[in-house]
Amino acid sequence: MLLTITTSRFPADNLGYLLHKHPAKIQSADISAGKAHIFYPEVSAEKCTAALLLDIDPVGLVRSSGPKGNDFALEQYVNDRPYVASSFMSAAIAKAYSSAMNGRCKDKPELVDVAMPFTVKLSVLSVRGGEAVLRALFEPLGYTINAQQHQLDPLYPDWGQSRYFTVELSHTITLQRLLSHLYVLIPVCDNDKHYWINAEEVEKLLAKGSGWLEAHPAKEMIVRRYLKDQRSLAGQALSVLLSKDEAEVEEAAVEAPEEVTEPKVRIHDLRLQAAKDELLLAGAKRVADLGCGECRLLKLLLAERQFEFILGMDVSIRVLQIANNRLKIERMPDKQRERIQLIQGSLTYRDKRLEGFDGAALVEVIEHLDPPRLAALERAVFEYAKPGTVVVTTPNAEYNVLFENHPEGKMRHNDHRFEWTRKEFEAWATDLAVKYNYNVLFKAVGEEDAEVGALSQMAVFSLQKDNLKND
Q1: Name one GO biological process term (predicted).
Q2: What angle, rounded to 10 degrees, do the helices at 131-138 and 175-190 form?
Q3: Which domains, from first to last, does the chain contain?
Q4: Per-residue model confidence as pLDDT tens digits over 204-227
């Protein structure tokens, strides 16, 4: 299987610096089932092509973990793995072009962030779902696609088309971003992987997809296929992608006038303070920050002696590690350290670790979920975990008209699946309260306008006393 990357940006032979591979040498790297060879079929200042050729050992496939499907008894011995671009190609890209993938260029670091015209050719790519899937994956990222589908057998045209394509992709883009797209999307096209999938794959996907996967319209298919349809892992990845912080445009709306000299509080800080105040007011002692991110709310909660135990939950292990370092949990006195716990988990699945809390906060979380997944969150939090008090904040869509140069109908962040008006939010929260036996109050958060309301809106749910007795 062969992958070529060509650029015509003058001087084109700078591609050798970016890839950390000298054009005058043929280089090789070992992969799990063979070797990857890197060479340059064409090198000049006007045009340069780097080729990545995989030499897969069929016997090595059988001896290693290899594909373990069960379509037929001889699949380990009779399969297309040595001949098509698949997860083996992704592994080869990561091994052969690791420096370029990580944005490093020792000799010419200024090239890393330069968008260049690239043409990528995959000699044979397996695409389950046909050309429609291929285009759904690459076109939203800006690629021009030239795809030639191959017949199952030219001697028997009645057998129809195969799932194999010769694909040419063209785009003006940085090399680092190009390689990240190929690394993730090649096995997604094939819808298979040659190795065992575990929680580490979620972190790989989030790292390689950072900056583009969050806004991709086919992200759910990408996540599902990349993680081989393992629901729990896919749920973790999607929860991270759908719970990013809001864009800076939101913060710009609360900047102080020039004559005000006092420090201006960021809108997200106002939300966190409001959530803390409501949990204090409710008398909660055991509290949970659901979708805690890097734990800025937890830091506020730790300062209050009323909170005897504080839990932070997020789906990303990497984010929790950052939070642990920022909070300096390891350096805390024993009694302080016993008050706090960070756990990894998804809000769209029932989790018994969330039961028994007096209060919980979901600060700017719900708008990052698609409506069907929002329903799963509702059950996980309000039916199963059932905290005594639940504080929920979300943007007020009516306020968007006050943002300077903000197009009508555009959401504040491209990760948002919806943004509700005050009426819509109140209808949702009221229905939820009735369904799960809570009372609910609504409050404004942040700068408020007489006509369109506040920048953010908040619902405070209190479990009805009859339910507390029954529990």
Answers
A1: RNA methylation
A2: 150
A3: 2-195 (3.30.1610.20), 248-470 (3.40.50.150)
A4: 898 898 889 988 888 889 998 999
